[in-house]
Write a structure and sequence with these properties.
Layout (H helix, E strand, L loop, with lengths): L5 H13 L6 H8 L3 H15 L6 E6 L2 E6 L1 H7 L4 H13 L2
Antiparallel strand pairs: 1-2
Helix pairs in contact: 1-3
Length: 97
């Protein structure tokens, strides 16, 4: 039986985007109001989701916490192009699926 925490994983994802520093499970529990068990399972779900080759985002374990970041290989490319160009590329990739 698969344990699905879509809303909980989405909540953690939103928290990661708002925070600039890595967050440990205690901080995530305090901010989200979720239990540590739910946090652990939702983090695993996010890790699995981001491990897909189609994702440009990854969940990194840094400094005793976790942080959502663009993949290192994309970071160098994205830093060289404008936001408008990035959106054009994104749209092109989506329409080719």
């Amino acid at each position: 039986m698969e344990f699905v925490l879509e809303k909980e994983a989405a909540l953690l994802e939103a928290i990661f985007y708002l925070e600039t520093e890595p967050l440990d499970e205690n901080s995530l529990a305090r901010i989200s109001g979720l239990s540590k068990d739910m946090i652990e399972k939702a983090l695993e779900q996010l890790k699995e989701h981001y491990s897909s080759e189609q994702s440009g985002i990854e969940l990194l374990q840094i400094s005793g916490g976790a942080k959502v970041m663009d993949m290192f290989s994309w970071g160098r490319v994205l830093s060289k192009i404008s936001l408008a160009a990035a959106w054009t590329i994104r749209s092109s990739l989506q329409s080719s699926r």
